[in-house]
């Protein structure tokens, strides 16, 4: 079950308060390729060890949050900064 439009309208980055939107498929694919290569870490420094099935990205394109089993994981420590992703 995808995230409802109503929920998406109220979600924002818990740190910057920038609204989020669904991560487009092309960016999701690039992110997952870099995760597979071991080149992506969460904000807390831990390596991202599994690909994202879906994600949310802040409207300023600075941060990605994973969606696990249709539940957005909006934890600051588990945010994925996009500056580390090449060819973004």
Word description of this protein:
The structure is a single chain. The chain has 2 helices and 5 strands, in the order H-E-H-E-E-E-E. The protein has helices at residues 5-10, 25-36, and strands at 20-22, 54-58, 63-68, 71-72, 80-81. The protein is 20% helix and 20% strand. Strand 2 and strand 3 form a beta hairpin. Strands 1, 2, 3, 4 and 5 form a 5-stranded antiparallel β-sheet that branches. The protein is globular, with a radius of gyration of 12 Å. With 88 residues, the chain is of the alpha+beta class. The chain has one domain (5-84).
Can you give keywords for this protein?
about 90 residues, alpha+beta, 5-stranded antiparallel sheet, 2 helices, 5 strands, about 20% strand
Task: Write the element-wise H/E pattern from the N-terminal end onward.
Answer: HEHEEEE
Structural class: alpha+beta
Strand content: 15-25%
Indicate the low-confidence ranges by residue numbers: none
Shape: globular
**Mean pLDDT reading:** 95
Give the count of helical stretches. Answer: 2
